[in-house]
UniProtKB/TrEMBL annotation:
Residues 393-414 are annotated as: Disordered. Residues 5-358 form the FAD-binding domain. Its cofactor is FAD. Keywords: FAD, Flavoprotein, Monooxygenase, Oxidoreductase. It comes from Triangularia verruculosa. The keyword Cell membrane does not apply. Pfam families: FAD_binding_3. The keyword Transmembrane helix does not apply. This is Monooxygenase. GO terms for molecular function: FAD binding; oxidoreductase activity, acting on paired donors, with incorporation or reduction of molecular oxygen, NAD(P)H as one donor, and incorporation of one atom of oxygen. It comes from the Eukaryota.
Length: 414
């Protein structure tokens, strides 16, 4: 039988995207969000080709590209020296003469748009769908299943303090790292994995000093103490600067250390009067994944199901990939082309990808920035650096097993 309704908890980008995809497939969706409105903080977001594929399926990719911009690529740099020289760069491919700029290669190439703008765009499209509703100010306080009806239910508390039971064929928790759905399923303190002994401070700033140096749109700085990332996130010159700090410091301590940190890592060694600080957000960094992303008629996706450090964007990309896989599964059930057991396969495959790909790559991405004594040691020892160098060298032959005259690609695409 076609699905009567899906409830999605959490109106972040993953919840909104899944709501839009399902509602466009004529599946009724109720999106429940405990806050009064979307998060409007300008957070950094670079969307990979895999994410752009899902945006395309949701019918929003052209608007995302128009509202954002296509970054030129990402580089790894040394912190020392006035020009903070580039060690390696991976380019975002540009169409060449004779190429079709609307081909999948170029249509789905990386695009940048802050998450709050993506959220607003998604919200507008969701509100235009006759089979979708967004319920702001509704907080989930309990969950359960009615086996006789074959339904899942959530108990919600509204703004006026009243409660109500809402039923659906399936309930999807897209409600972030502190997911109430996950905590109701497994317990408040059960989220397998670990927390890094280092913490991160994410800032958004306007700083004219970036114009005076040959920065790429995104770059990572390799340094045992002052490791950090700088990325342009809006065409108007808003930058995200995310830097590492020692663990265990309070918010006030981190705020007190912040001016000296910026003076050490930013070009021109600026004082606070020389830049505009828009956001200052310290947070702990985790590598975690649930043991099950499906429990009966309850499903988890994105940060509610797994976390990783932000270097390389693996968490955001993995969450959007969850959404695409879950959409395909639920649409298959709705159209009578798949059994309910496909959701077990969703659980199996997405957790395997986190363990085999997302966790390992994101861990290496972060360690790469601080594990070497200096940038020269990074150049000498880092396997990733050597791989990129090989792939960008047209005269470099493939490893053993390849054809004798074969070469690696002359560029590495994001």
């Amino acid at each position: 039988m076609p699905l009567e309704k899906v409830i999605i908890v959490g109106a972040g980008p993953s919840g909104l995207l899944l709501t839009l995809l399902l509602s466009r497939a004529s599946i009724p969706v109720e999106l429940i969000e405990q806050t009064e409105a979307l998060d409007t903080n300008p957070r950094a977001s670079h969307y990979s080709p895999e994410s752009c594929y899902e945006f395309d399926r949701a019918g929003i990719l052209d608007e995302v590209r128009e509202a954002g911009f296509v970054p030129d690529g990402v580089s790894w740099r040394r912190l020392e020296g006035e020009n903070k020289s580039r060690l390696i760069k991976i380019t975002n491919p540009l169409p060449q003469p004779g190429d079709d700029p609307d081909s999948v290669t170029f249509r789905h190439r990386m695009v940048c748009l802050p998450l709050h703008k993506l959220g607003k765009l998604l919200e507008t499209h969701v509100k235009s769908q006759p089979t979708a509703e967004i319920k702001y100010g509704w907080k989930v306080v309990d969950i359960g299943e009615d086996t006789d009806k074959g339904k899942a239910w959530v108990k919600v508390e509204k703004e006026d303090g009243t409660t109500q039971i809402r039923e659906a064929d399936y309930v999807v928790g897209c409600d972030g790292a502190n997911s109430i759905i996950r905590r109701k399923l497994f317990g408040d303190w059960v989220y397998p994995g670990y927390t890094w002994d280092k913490q991160i401070v994410a800032t958004n700033i306007y700083y004219d000093g970036f114009k005076d140096i040959d920065y790429d749109d995104s770059q990572f700085f390799v340094h045992p103490e002052h490791w950090h990332m700088v990325a342009r996130i809006q065409p108007d010159g808003l930058y995200r600067v995310t830097y590492g700090e020692v663990g265990g410091l309070t918010y006030d301590q981190l705020k007190e250390r912040h001016p000296a940190k910026f003076q050490a890592i930013l070009p021109g060694n600026p004082t606070p009067d020389q830049y505009k600080l828009v956001n200052f957000s310290p947070y702990k960094v985790h590598q975690r994944c649930v043991d099950k992303m499906r429990v009966g008629r309850f499903l988890l996706a994105a940060d509610a199901a797994h976390l990783c450090n932000p270097f390389g964007g693996m968490g955001l990309t993995g969450g959007i990939a969850d959404v695409g896989s879950l959409y395909d599964s639920l649409r298959g059930i709705h159209n009578n082309r798949a059994y309910d057991s496909i959701l077990d396969k969703y659980d199996e495959v997405r957790r395997k990808i986190w363990h085999d790909v997302i966790n390992s790559i994101s861990t290496e991405n972060m360690q790469r920035l601080f594990q070497y004594a200096n940038a020269d040691e990074f150049v000498e020892k880092d396997p990733f650096y050597k791989l990129v160098q090989d792939m960008q060298n047209p005269d470099k032959k493939l490893e053993k097993g390849g054809p004798p005259n074969a070469t690696r690609a002359t560029a590495v695409d994001l």
